[in-house]
Amino acid sequence: MSEPSKTRAPHAERFDRQTRFAPLGPDGQARLARARVTLVGCGALGGVLAHTLVRAGVGRLVLVDRDVVETSNLPRQVLFDERHADQQAPKARAAAETLARIGGPTEVTPVVAHLDGRNLDELCGDADLVLDGTDNLPTRYLLNDFAVARGKPWVYAGVVGAEGLALAVLPGRGPCLRCVFPEPPPPGSLETCDTAGVILPAVGAIASLAAGLALRLLAGDLASFEPALLSLDAWDGRARTLAIERDPRCPCCGRGETPFLDAAPTRKPVVLCGRGAVQVVGVAAAPDLAALLTRVRAVAPDAQRAGDILRFSVDGHRLTVFRDGRALVEGTEDPDRARALYDRWVGA
After folding, report:
1. What residues are labeled active site?
2. Which of 42, 71, 107, 236 is most buried, judging by how many CB atoms fall within 10 Å of its CB?
């Protein structure tokens, strides 16, 4: 007769306490182990989400992030330390490095990239669930269009200051993001992390709510699930559940309009929230980083290449150039200035 420990499911002991939670149970845990999740953004919200899913035993987690770690991230982005900031490590890779130390069965795949219509299917197409760890509205509306068009569940989350929102979107069953917020607000009309700041307790609370929704969706506990907009203020201690219904006139899930998905990927420079930096995307072929390093060393003695990233300082700014042709231009929030620096030093 075999020993009981040898007849139990793999990792049964590791996940014993959470499988004792009846709504999850062994069957739900088995579904988590088979689940494929794409997390877009692994900074503040994304760090807590990734940490929770790996510890919960999700089968595969794809981390997509376009940015690098900086010192100002450390008070609220839990997967990074000072070493990552000193190295300006790509967030996706730094996050994967930290998560690897947890161990467990989760396969973590870091992707250093800017998510847009060109790589959306590749990165999210086979996911059972897409999670929002981003800090910008255009990507959220793009994810909503994609999820509704593909019938794929996703979880929205956002935090500014001490307040945050979370919403699980189940296409065909409940409201989508555009049922609640039909159009993105005009630029500058909302508070951002730049203007209002952000604190870790709010990030942690909202990300944990979003992670709880994600685990419930992945575990298949949907019989009594009622989509709602969850609102929380971590400073005042206020929490609300706002019942919302699908809007039959919604431009996305009601009328089937997906303008954010259908639009050609933009190459317009993007100011990064709270970074004092602008992302610029080249219009030509991806640069030859080895040749670029040789060319800029004469004017930028600090130029260094680490794999598929090249960094150098010039004209009072610091440029981080990626193999895919993107560059982060630090020291400015002027898109025109950033584009001019990119064109001059990297190439049009």
Report:
1. 193
2. 42
